[in-house]
Amino acid sequence: MFGVLVRRLSTSTPVLALIQPPVQVFGLEGRYASALYSAATKQKALDKIEKDIQLIKNTLKKDVKLHEFCLDPSLQRATKINGIGQALDKLKVNEATKNLFVILAENGRLSKINSVIDKFEQIMTAYRGEVNCTVRTAKPLDKTLENELRNALNGFLKPGEKLQLTLEIDPSIIGGMVVSIGDRFVDMSIARKVRSLRGIMEQPI
C-alpha cells in the first residue's frame, strides 16, 4: 500500500525507493506525510510543497465550510474527491500536493487532513534542523531574562540545530516556568510545587 502511495504522489518516472524523512513520524498520518516528503524531495520541490501545505492550512482556518467539508463523515467519497480536487485547483498547488489529498479522499481519510499537515510540518522542522521549544510563564519575561533563557536552552541543542522559541503567558502557573523542548518537559512552576506540597499534606500520618 505504501509503495502504491509513493508512486501515486510522483508526477515523474516512478521510483519505488522511499526517501526517508529526517525524523520518524508515526501513525497513518505519518505515512502519508512521509510519502509526500519523499515525492517532494525527488522532484526537488520541497520549498514549493511546504508553501502549498502552509497555504492549505491557512485556507482551512479561514474557510469554515471547506474545513467542515473535509471532516464530514456523512459525505460520499466521490463528493469529497471532486470537492477537494476543485479546491486545490483553485489554490494552484503542486500536483504531488493535490495527489496526496485526493488519495486521502479516495481512501476515506480526508478527515485526517489536519493531522497529516501537522506531521508534514514536523518533518520539515527536523529537515531544517529546528528544535521547537515552548516556555510558559505567569507574566512576560523582560529582554534580559529572555536572552538568558535562550542561552540556557541553546545548551541543550546538538551542533547544527536551531532553537525555535515560543513564549506563552499562563497566569495559572503562578510563577516560575514550564519548559517543553524537543521531547523534554520540565515543570518548574510554583503551581507544581503547590500541588506537590498539597499531596504531601494530604497523606495520612
Automatic annotation (TrEMBL):
Keywords: ATP synthesis, Hydrogen ion transport, Ion transport, Membrane, Transport. The keyword Membrane applies. InterPro entries: ATP_synth_OSCP/delta_N_sf, ATPase_OSCP/dsu. It holds the Pfam family OSCP. NCBIfam families: ATP_synt_delta. Belongs to the ATPase delta chain family. This is Oligomycin sensitivity conferral protein.
